[in-house]
Amino acid sequence: MYSTKIRILNSELGVLQKQILRSAAVSSTSIKVEDATVPLKSLKDIPGPPSLPIIGPLHNFLPGGMFYNVKGIELNKKMNEMYGPIVRLDSMLGMNLIVALYDAESTAQVFRGENWMPVRPGFPSLEYYRKNYKHRNEESSKPTGLITDHLEPWKEFRSAMNPVLMQPKTIRLYTNAIDQVAQDMISRMKSTRDENNMLRGQFDIEMNLWALESIAVVALGTRLNCFDPNLAEDSPARRLIHRVNDFFNYAEALDYKPSLWKYISTPTLKKAIETYEDLENLTKYFIQKAMEELKKNGGKSNDEKGVLEKLLEINEEFAYIMAADMLFAGVDTTATTMMGTLYLLAKNPDKQQKLREEVMSKSDKKPYMRACIKESMRLMPVISGNFRKTTKDYNILGYHIPKGTYVVSMHHNMSLNEENFPRATEFIPERWIVDKDDPLYHGNAHPFVYAPFGFGVRMCIGRRIAELEVESFLARIVENFKVEWFGPPPKVVQAALNYVRGPFNYVFKDL
Ligand code: HEM
């Protein structure tokens, strides 16, 4: 029985390349503000919820406020309906002012304009730890990782990582290992079902354990044995599981809620730093163990070398950093995608059966599987909006967006808009595979309305791994169970990610 709650921060290469090429081919659409033919309106003129001194628009979200208790996708929908395609959310209690875009063409303008060296605001407390605490006596240009670096250091690091993590051949090496994790998870699910065919453990924790076990195979080159109920409390694997959990809770408390840690060293900051440090040490411990194994089994050809081996060849320090980022970004994301996909398939038994037939056919190509995952990420994406901090000025819909503004593209809202996807709120995987002349054809939508893995050169580097994990597990699930759901839909809470918080009314019946 696991008492931990793991909270961590997901087709093809052709599509990815097309996106990168498309963005590279289009020159920056930023504008010299002084060149605008009509005077631009200012940031302050952008419509948005009214603001008060110091607390900003906070009162709108408190009891009596117009957005009180309106959350997640409903909140974004309401803001879009009230204020239009561009909305300003003023700074609240020291947090940054945000410009939200609900318009695909405006998104294209900013995201293409920023695609050379995009800055994505992320997790300031982790950034503080990595840049100011851990490296306080070292040169500030030293890379700290994809999640926390920006501009040149990010570019240097990402350029070194891309050939390893985005290389289909390398990721394919994990097919069997990831499938073995999926099979072990199926055994666990079978043995922990109750008399109603529901899992005894809390479902989100179960999915996080599966995701952690899967990503550890790639990041640390080892099985953590997360599914072993006898795993000792003080074992490094158990400690890693706990730390990954704590890590996300602290990052959430420090980065997504008003907090004084930027001004004084709060008790939460101290505990977070302890966690970040411990997590880093545990990551190193596993990698060093893997290095010893690799030395023993040396002599592999380049084609046989996995992610960790290739990262270690580049630079040992890079391998530690990247492994930590994979653990950080690769657990909740895949777990949440899995929960959403299972819910949608349970609610659409005909689609589930179609997927099962494809899986049972044992065909190498699985277009329906991919379509189901894409459609699930359209309806229930892990992240509703993609962020950039602008590195230049823009003219967006007649407003001057100055350099340094936090802009978020609300792709989830755009994906649920009938103008972009017909029958937008229905789960129709077919839209991803039908011909161009079919009205449902996904390609009729503007390319910037659907971006669950982000965009361009800063797009999710774990995408291929995530797809492999989700496809493998989903195949094993539909092969073994008929998935059903009862009662109201699960609650989705928007924080750093869109967490599925239950109720977890999944039923897994034997076929
Ligand atoms: C279905 C699962 C996942 C989803 C939906 C997802 C989504 C995203 C998104 C939206 C971004 C931001 C991209 C942007 O700013 O344009 C991102 C970045 C990132 N993701 Fe994922 N992700 C997933 C799984 C993973 C996995 C398994 C890993 C582990 C390798 C991972 C590692 C990362 C990293 C390191 C970044 C930062 C990349 C950079 O800034 O260069 N993600 N992800």
Q: For the report, how would you describe the main beta sheet?
A: 4 strands, mixed
Strand content: 5-15%
> What is the total tally of β strands?
10
Helix content: 40-55%
| N→C terminal distance | 27 Å
Number of separate helices: 17
CATH superfamily caption of the domain at 142-346 and 454-462 and 473-510: Cytochrome P450
Bound ions, cofactors and other small molecules, one mention each: protoporphyrin IX containing FE
Give the helix/strand class. alpha+beta
| SSE sequence, one letter per element | HHEEHHHHHHHHHHHHHEEEEHHEEEE
**Architecture (CATH level 2) name of the domain at 142-346 and 454-462 and 473-510:** Orthogonal Bundle
Q: Calculate Rg over CA atoms.
A: 23 Å
Low-confidence stretches: 1-29
Assign the CATH class of the domain at 142-346 and 454-462 and 473-510: Mainly Alpha
The backbone outline, from C-alpha atoms, is globular
Strand order of the largest sheet: 1-2-6-3
Summed up:
Helices cover 46% and strands 8% of the residues. It is of the alpha+beta class and 511 residues long.
Topology:
Layout: H1 13-25, H2 72-83, E1 86-89, E2 98-101, H3 104-113, H4 124-134, H5 151-165, H6 168-172, H7 175-191, H8 203-219, H9 236-255, H10 267-296, H11 307-314, H12 316-329, H13 332-347, H14 349-360, H15 367-379, E3 386-389, E4 394-396, E5 399-401, E6 406-409, H16 411-415, H17 463-480, E7 481-485, E8 491-494, E9 498-502, E10 506-510
Parallel strand pairs: 2-6
Antiparallel strand pairs: 1-2, 3-6, 4-5, 7-10, 8-9
Helix pairs in contact: 4-10, 5-11, 7-8, 7-17, 8-12, 8-13, 9-10, 10-12, 11-12, 13-15, 13-17
The protein binds protoporphyrin IX containing FE (HEM).
Family: Belongs to the cytochrome P450 family.
Protein name: Cytochrome P450 333B10
Cofactor: heme
